Amino acid sequence: RYIRNKLFSALLKREITASDIFGATFIKRMLGSRKVFIVLDDVGNDAQLEYLCEELDDLDPNSRLIVTTRDRHTLRRNVDEIYEVTNWNFQKSLRLFCLGAFKQIYPKEGYKLLSQRAVVYAGGVPLALKVLGSHFYSRSPEFWEPELKNLENKGESLHGIQEVLKVSYNGLSVREKEMFLDIAFFFKDEKRHFVTRILDACGFNATSGIDVLEDKALITISNVNKIEMHDLLQQMAFDIVRQKKDRTTRDPRKCSRLRDIEEVCDAFKNSKGTHRVEGIIFDLSQKGDLHVRADTFNMMTKLRFLRLYVPLTKKRSRNIYHPEDMMPFSDKLRYLEWNGCPLKSLPHPFCAELLVEIHLPHSNVEYLWHGMQ
Question: What range(s) does the NB-ARC domain occupy (predicted)?
C-alpha cells in the first residue's frame, strides 16, 4: 500500500495516504482522465504486481505501464507483452564502456586493444560495462593489463558486477542454488534432457528447477534445447564455490566442485580434505601429467559427477599415473566419464546402484566390475 500511495501521489501531484478521504473510486476516476507513462522497476513479487495492476485497471487507453523484473514468472498473468532484454552488440558496448573509462565514446590513444578486451569480457551486459569502465577510469595501461589478465584467466569477477548478479541467485531455494552451481560447473551447453536426467538422479526436481533458473534469467534454453549461461554468471558460480571453501587455509580441495587445472591436480595428488568434493570436470587435452593416489576417489565420499574428457577438436596430451591397487569410487556416483582410462577394471568393489551413465572411450578397461549390478 505504501508503494501504491507513493505512485498515486506522484501521478496526481498531491499527497495520497491510506486514509485519504477521496477514496479509491475518486482516485481511479482522476487517473482515468489522464494519459500517463509508468515504469515499475525491479518488481520481484507477482502478488505485489497484481495488486498494483488492479489499482491501475482504469487508466486512459493511451497510457503505458512498463514493468522490469528479474523473474519472468512475475509477468505471466498481468501483462500484454513480454520483452526479453538481449545483450548489446560490440560497438554499442564499446561506447558505453568508454563513457565510463574515458568520459567519451571512443578509446584514448594507446587503449584501443585494452578496451576491446574489456568489452569482450563484459559480454554485452550493460552493468558489467559500466562497472568495468568505472574500474579502469584514469588508470594507466600498466594497471589495465594485469587486471584484465586476472579477469580473463582466473574466472573471477569484479565485486560490483558479482553483487548485482547475485541478487537473482540469492532469491533461489537451497536446492535451486545447488542446481545452478552444478549447471555452471558441469552442464553448460549440454542438452536439456541429458542435464535433467542426471540432476533428477541426484535427487533434484530438475524440470521445475530448470524452469525457475530460466525465469530468473540465470540460464537460457537455445533453439536446439541446450542449456546456455552467460560467462559472467558462470564466473559468479565459480566464485561462490571458492568462497564456500575453508576461509582459513584457502585449500582448493575443500571446494564442492572442481574444474580448475591446479585445483584438480592438487586434489588428485593430495587426497586429504577432498571429502567435500561432489563433482569434477577436467579437460585431459591440457598439457602435463596427472598423478592419482590409491585413495583419491575413495576419499571423495560425496562424489556424484566425474568427467575426465577430451574435446572432440583436440587430442589427449595428459598421462595419468596411478597405483595398481586403486581404492573404490564413492557409492554416490551418478555420472562417470574417463577418456583413456588406464585401468583394466573399475576399482573393486564398484557400486553402480545410483549410476545413470558411464563413458570410457579409448580406455584399457576389459571388464567393468565383478558380479551383477
Answer: 23-103
